[in-house]
Amino acid sequence: MSVIRATDSDFRVCQISFDVLLEIQLEAEERGWATRWTSVDALRSQVKEGSVILQSLMREERGGVVRAYRCLLLFSTVDDGDAGGVVTIDLDPARYESLERLDRDPDVRNALARMFSLAMGGISMVSKK
Q1: Most-buried pick from 9, 19, 75, 99 (CB within 10 A)?
Q2: What's the pLDDT at 54?
Q3: What distance in Å separates the CA atoms of residue 56 and residue 36, rounded to the nearest whole number?
Q4: In DSSP terms, which residues pair with 77 in a beta bridge?
Q5: Pick from 7, 4, 116: which is nearest to 54 by CA?
Q6: Most distant CA pair in the chain: distance in Å?
Q7: What is the pLDDT of residues 73-115, one digit of tens each?
Q8: CA 69, CA 33: separation in Å to the nearest integer?
């Protein structure tokens, strides 16, 4: 798998509905991809219904053809009030291309990429000194 950079033509950040996330999960289950929840019930136990933000992370290529996109998902968690979670999930290239982008403006793209970078590293409330 190769990393997708914010400057790559196939980099994207999208806002998807909970229903689309469920469809992505079912597609990943059907394909036997390991980067997914174990089941729709497991997903429902962790992800609060509502919109989810998706960012491309890596692409899997075989013979010069993209087989799957590994993406980050940023979502509200079911049990932690206003807390969020970040996970990875694999998407079929056709599904990936069909998602509506939020990142068409270069400044927005860079800001969203930075937001995901911080989320992956861990975010904590900090008391100012």
Answers
A1: 75
A2: 95
A3: 15
A4: 47
A5: 116
A6: 54
A7: 999 999 877 778 899 999 999 999 999 998 888 888 889 888 8
A8: 11
Confidence of residue 119 (pLDDT cuts 50, 70, 90): confident
- C-alpha 25/C-alpha 31 separation (Å) is 10
Q: Report whether pLDDT(125) > 80.
A: no
CA angle 29-31-36, nearest 5°? 40
Does residue 15 contact residue 36 with C-beta atoms inside 8 Å? no
Q: How do strand 52-62 and strand 2-3 relate by DSSP bridges?
A: antiparallel
Calculate the CA 111 to chain-centre distance: 16
pLDDT in tens, 15-46: 999 999 999 999 999 999 989 999 999 999 99
pLDDT at 68 over 80: yes
Question: Which of 75, 70, 73 shows the shortest CA–CA distance to 47?
Answer: 75
Query: What is the rounded CA–CA span in Å between residue 55 and residue 113?
Result: 8
Task: Assess contact for 70 and 60: CB atoms under 8 A.
Answer: yes
CB 42, CB 78: distance < 8 Å = no
**H-helix or E-strand containing 97?**
helix 93-98
